[in-house]
Design brief:
The protein has one domain (6-103): Vaccinia Virus protein VP39 (Rossmann fold, 3-Layer(aba) Sandwich), CATH 3.40.50.150. It has four helices and three strands. It has helices at residues 17-24, 37-46, 64-74, 100-103; strands spanning 6-11, 27-33, 88-91. A three-stranded parallel sheet has the order 2-1-3, with helices on both faces. The longest helix has 11 residues, at 64-74. The protein is globular and about 30 Å long.
């Protein structure tokens, strides 16, 4: 937790549907990874605080270090988040049936 907020990072974010539920449960999403340009535009429009990090990226092209640095900026810290300060990493492989097996090899360790 940071400043009383439960911190989450979202992978394979889509248009932020799962994350909306997480917000309602008290989590504060501080970084997202999504490759679909339209989904990223939706995230940026609905969550302006994520606009800087919400850019289309392939999961295999982003490191945990980059996510923690971005999260620190989102929270207004003068430093990256430490791995133990992330309470939850959400998301999973895309929903397309045949894509799941291919995508599961890209598990990000935080």
């Amino acid at each position: 937790m940071i400043n009383g907020k439960a911190i989450s990072i979202s992978l394979f974010s889509g248009a932020f549907g799962l994350d909306l539920g997480m917000e309602q449960s008290g989590f504060h999403t501080v970084a997202v990874v999504e490759k679909d340009k339209d989904a990223v535009k939706t995230i940026a429009l609905n969550r302006p605080h994520l606009q800087e990090i919400a850019i289309p990226k392939e999961i295999e092209k982003i490191s945990s270090k980059e996510l923690l640095e971005a999260a620190g900026k989102i929270l207004g810290l003068d430093r990256p988040l430490n791995p133990g300060e992330v309470d939850l990493v959400t998301g999973g492989p895309p929903c397309q049936l045949f894509n799941c097996a291919k995508q599961t090899k890209y598990i990000l360790r935080i």
